[in-house]
Amino acid sequence: MHFQTESLIYPVRQTAMLRILPVFPVTVRQDARYEAILRPFTGLRQYRRAEAFSKATVDFFRKRHMLSIVGDHLELTIDLPQEDSYIIELYIDGIEAEKLEIYALEPDLFSLNAYRGDNHMHTWMSDGKDSPMYMAAMSCRRGCDYCLITDHHKYEPSLIAKRFYEGTGVDFLVIPGEEIHSPDNPVHIISIGGRESVNAWWREDDREYRAAVREAIAEVDDTLLPEDRYTAAACQTVFDRIRAVGGVSVLCHPHWVLSQTHALNEHEDVTDYLMDHRRFDVLELIAGGAFEVGTQMQISYYHDRPTMPIVGSSDAHGCFLDQLEPHNYTICFAKSLTVEGIQKAIRSGLTVGGNENKLYGEYRLVKYAYFLKRCFFPRHEALRDRVGVWMLRYASARDEADAAIYNGLKCESPSKLFESLRYQG
Question: What is the dihedral of CA 327, 330, 335, 340, to 10 degrees?
Fold first, then answer.
């Protein structure tokens, strides 16, 4: 790359200054003629538009524009009329030199930052292979801004990782979480950011839990088989409890195919009931890497019910050759990298689930996320990798003096990168 734009993200329907900067060792030549043509990625979309684009707007995207040389950079006044990616073809003395890309957003998304996270992983404190600190660090190395440690039956491992890194000031968020397995209920459920453990609740007060389930059964459709009525009621009870302790409830991999039985872990009648009487907050659309058949079934199932929020998760149980396996993730569009900020984004459906190959979710968000995957996340991942290396070294340090050696890397703030690329005027 020889040139780059100063900003990546612009507001729609506002006059803005596009600034194009040379990348060292290239410089702007004062004797050269610089021109650019902008092309909306999806074309100008006038169909079903209340008011037709003006002739001036249409003509703007059909011709080259002379760029002004201002000191060491190039400038062009722009007004981007629709939410879209815009391809910039840069010409130097009539010869195409480079293609650049920017994105224009409506106000609701323009004000939000993009964060990547993993909402489901396990450590050696349940059936995983590595420590909570190691799993958090590896999430960071793989480009995540946040992660949840969600051990089976256990809330404490997530707190161990959170407390371990919290005092260091490192730019990474560990959100408290757990995978909940209530008695006689095969359905897997995650709590994101709850103030206390739901697993501990049913373990310590089984009588209260059973009473809540009995009350919930009375509301469940009696056309379900008895065992499915109980499962549905138990799930609704857990969802309600998660909400009561301030968490976001996730229905996990409902089409997981058990290797032992070659059948679904969760009866589809239960899934249908939970969808029709939804008290959970979000569907885990993709998770794990060994259950591709179940994942594809979930995606097809979601296409019939596309109105609910989704997340993507690794469901990782360890790392192989220093790589988190597999690497599914969620992109959250949130105001801040805080527990509350991430929870609000997930509840509001401002998420995309995906991996290195595919992204899923609302079309508007997926289109934007693919742009970020091309133009933002490569830079972000490089910074995250360096912070993750610091986290690994800090976790393996023998004493405070040993840990202090690595403090230089901790100063990086990848989560601030996105804000710096939003147009400021």
Answer: -100
DSSP string across 347-380: HTT-EEEE-SS-EES-HHHHHHHHHHHHHTHHHH
Q: Classify 393 as helix, strand or coil.
A: helix
86-121 residue pLDDT tens: 999 999 999 999 999 999 999 999 999 999 999 999
Is residue 398 within 8 A of residue 364, CB to CB? The reply is no
> Under CATH, what is the fold of the domain 113-383?
TIM Barrel (3.20.20)
Q: What is d(CA 391, CA 410) in angstroms, rounded to the nearest whole number?
A: 8
Cα separation, 182 vs 231, whole angstroms: 10
CA–CA dist 139, 130 (Å, integer): 12
CA pair distance 15, 9, nearest whole angstrom: 13
Domain assignments of the chain as residue spans, ordered by start = 3-106, 113-383
Give 260's DSSP letter: T
| E runs forming strands in 80-208 | 84-92, 95-105, 113-118, 146-148, 173-175, 177-180, 189-192
pTM > 0.70:
yes
Q: What separation in angstroms does the CA of 73 have from each of 3, 86, 185? A: 9, 20, 62
**Which residue intervals of 4-144 are DSSP H helices?**
55-60, 107-110, 132-141
In tens, the pLDDT along 68-89 reads: 999 999 999 999 999 999 999 9
Does the domain at 3-106 match CATH 2.60.40.1930? Answer given as: yes
Residue 321 carries which DSSP code? T
